Amino acid sequence: MTIVVLDPAPKLRAAPEPSKRGGQDDTPKETWDERELTTLYRDHVRYVGAIAQRILGQREDAEDIVQDVFIDAAKGLGAIRDAAAVRGWLATVTVRKARRKLRMRTLRSFFGAAAGEVNDDIVAPGASPEDRAQIGKLYALLGRAPANERIAWTLRHLEGEKMEDVAAQCECSLATAKRWVSRTQTMIEKGMR
Amino acid sequence: MSDREREIERLGRLVDVEWSDARVHRVERAMIERRERRAKSRVAILGIALASAATLAVVAGRRGSGDAPSATMAETAPGGHGDAPPANGAKLVAGPSDRGVDLPGGGRATPLDPSSAAVAVEDGVDVHGAARVVSPSKVRVHVAAFLVDLPDGGEIVVTESADRARVLVTSARGRASVTWGGATRDVAEGETAEIDATKDARANAPATARRASPSPAEHAGDARWRSLAGAGDYDAAYDAMRAGGARAVGDAADDLLLAADVARLSRHPAEAVAPLEALLRDHGDDARAPLAAFTLGRVLLEELARPGDAADAFAKARALAPSGSLAEDALAREVEAAARAGDADRARREADEYARLYPRGSRAAAVRRYGGVP
Asked: Torsion angle, CA of B164/B168/B171/B172, rounded to 10 degrees?
């Protein structure tokens, strides 16, 4: 029997404390109105989109993830307004959804469907044919790695995140994140030779 | 770091993760539509649940009180048509916008996407595209050839179709009345009505006066380009805007920003410069001025190969809102633009500033590269 565990909402960090000002209750709103959501989307869509696109190597999948993340944000962010906490929440949810997408790819490939890796259109226009080929190879190698390890490595080496942030976004311990990154790095170094 | 790691890092930088404005806009629209579909599904489920409950109540009532008359849904539905929500047709755009207009009676109209607009007119509000109107008291909404009245105030969302022949009205609170071509249709609270002027038998009757006085938008000339832009057809909007001549675009910040969007997204970037510059010149204190400056910088840098001017525009974006959400990106892009313009001193100086202000900034690597910072 297969047990599917649905991801719970990520733990929110640094929730702002309610404060009193001039005798008025300043408690943060528990929900985001449409205006705030628009601002949230426009402020962070490129950040979320970049993470999703680097992890997945596909434009269309990245766009799906972006939509999912911002639709969930209306509920998931609750009273959180602190910029750093919002950014962290978005990154964590993006990683979580990308992980699910990667696992679905693996499942599809198991049943014979094309798993799909990097699309040529995500390579920068100025890249040489050799670089394009190398990027294709890199993502083909990443396609062989388990989802968690691939994500951790991508965040570390392609997104340039610090290991502490990689661990936070992957929702694992620092030691586990380091192990995942290291294992993937070894595999890639061998494969790229 | 080994050579191999450096090489992999270099390859990583060649993965194009830039999101153009057009892509941002397209994905936002798709997201809004998806959210709307979800909301409609929830409403449908709720409707089924309520209908089931009502049926049970009616059955229970009949059992309890003999043959007491009971109204059917069709008999009680507003307008007497048994009005069902539209199954399809004009889509209801339920997205948000930072633009809006305060209404004289204390209400507010908020366009639901960046291409929509709402302007206050003498007897209410004039909506182009899609907007949410909230009012504590009586208000009249003009949308295409339709008049939507809220006699007791309330909250509605109105959306006009791209051809302006249909309107979708959803009443979240209060009762609305839609008038067009001599016909009237009521929309009850919680109801969604799609009205097609071309299909209604009375549509050929003499049209009611649309409004007592022309809206500011009409003063500005042909408004068709706005509705086309609202429907996402930027090429057609551009043609309509051009056909409207010099008066097609008004002086309001909304209009200037929309005109710039139409020019950019229809691939006429050079024509986006003038409205953006006009906005910065005439509406420098508008909340959207930083966005206009940032957009101008992007157009100059990415589309028009004017990196020197682009650097100034990005600097302006930051100066207008040093703590705003665009400030970090504006500074990073200023470094890039200065470097591309060959102004290495400025690029280095601003790169140092970026490192000071945003030591963990998401663009730190690119800034270091363009600024020549080791």
From this structure: -110
